[in-house]
Every structure is written in C-alpha cells, then in structure tokens.
Amino acid sequence: MTETNGSETPRPDSTDLLRQVLDLEYQAIIDSKKIYTGTTPPQYGGRVFGGQVLAQALIAAGDTVDDERHLHSMHAYFVRPGDAQVPINFVVEEVRDGRSFSVRHVAAQQHGKTILTLTCSFQAEASGMDFFQPMPQGMPDPRSIPSTEELLGGIDHPQARQMASRRPFDIRMISEPVYIGPAQERSSQTACWLKTFSGIALGHNQQAAALAYAADYMPFDPILRQAGLFWATPGISMASLDHAMWFHRPIKVDEWMLYVLSNPSTQSARGTSIGQFYSTAGDLIATVAQEGMIRTPDDDNAPSS
User: Is 110 a catalytic residue?
Assistant: First the structure.
C-alpha cells in the first residue's frame, strides 16, 4: 500500500502491467501490411481499456518507422468495445515515408472486426520556433496529495480494486475526486499529477505510447464534474468515441506530470475534453482532445453507441 503524504512505494508488478501492454508480437506481412498481436491484462467488466488499444496501436506503428523519426500526432476512433479475453491484432499500413515525415494507419481487430482505427505521423528531428502556453501556477506538490489507492483501496468493489491496485500509473487528484460522489462545486476544469509507480526504460516512441495510455484515464472527469455526477453514478454509461494527441516535447512517464483538462462543451449525449500534460519543469509535453458518449438514466432512451 502507498503511504500518505509523500511515499512513492510501488505496488507489486504495477509497472510490469504497462510493460506487458507495450510488448507486442510481430506476426507476418499480409498484402504489404504488417500484423502485430497484443494481449490485455485482467480488466473489470471484461472490456479492454481504450488507452491500452491506443498505446498498442502506436507501438505497432512505431515499429515500422526509422528510430530517428518520433511520433508527433495521432488521431483515433473507437469503433467497437474490445474483448479482454481475446488477443488484439494490429494491422499497420505504411501510408507514406517522406523526407521528414512518415504516416501510418493502424486497424485494431478482434473477432474479424475493427475495434479501433488510428492514423499517426512521425517526424525526423528538426529545429525551429519554440514557445508554448505556460503551465498553471500554484499546483500542490504531488507527494502531498493522497493516491488513488489511498482513496479507494478500502472499498470492497471490483471496479474500485481495479482503479486502486491494477493501474500502472500513480494518479493524484488536485481537483476534488469524483470517484464515489459528486464534487461540492461544479467546475469544467480538472487537474491531477500522474506517473508510473516505478522507473521504466522506454524509447521515445514507447514513451509517447505510454502517455497515450495514461491520457485516456481522465477525459470524462471534467464532464462528470461539470454535470454534478461521479464515476460510480448509478446507471451511467460512458464510452470514448475518438481521441487525438499531439506530442510536443520529450516525455518521461516515470516522472511526475501535471495533467490539466477542461470541458468546453457537452451536448447530445456527447462531451468534449481538452487536456495538456506538463513536466515538473513547466514544459508543455503533449496536448489531448477527446469526445465521449455519456448517458444517464435521466436522459431520453436512445440507442447505445
């Protein structure tokens, strides 16, 4: 268990879960497309975490480009829910290799059907202008904030246990947590610190894939907060629809990163979140955008996604 106020003691095998996710097996080339296979750690509810599929698709794409080309953007659509009991095949199409950029398209497939489509771009190192939106000020030290394990570890429920002890990232909420109850004040803003529980050696594109994994944890949080809802709201239904990221500067997922998100609009059973990752040095690491489907029992009866 993680101790309060500052201990960063890793839970057993927590970072190994991430290593498992990022370890794909190359299968074959079929019709000029490379095929990879990834597996899924145990999941509550039997569905695959969307961030896992994003990360694995990026690993597959990155394996087909030169090492000196670094991931700078990705755009994905979640087409169907994944089955945690079945391996996922990743079919990579090498769309283009130019002088500076390489573009890849990835289809994640199970049971002969596509569950995710992703297009991403890699760039050779280049010099140019360098400026960014400053990091928000006045954020507390992450070591002074209770961990998710401390907040949820005593709750005897499979979803709480999944969030408390089966995630490879240590998430510490700066905003009032909305895990098991609504926030006292509604807000369209959310902020947290996060990093892996222990050190992990990854290449540049693997770091980006790991960050994409972590980015999918939080986009619904500002939507729930603004609506006066919480993650365990009875009867709530949520599903990520699409996900985009832009990777600006070097990433180290085993060091604390500030993740700030806002909800500019929610309508028609869909909510949008925009987020930024910052290093403790104040550098803007990445930008995130996601739209998700969200329904409650009070909404009009509508077909599921």
Answer: no
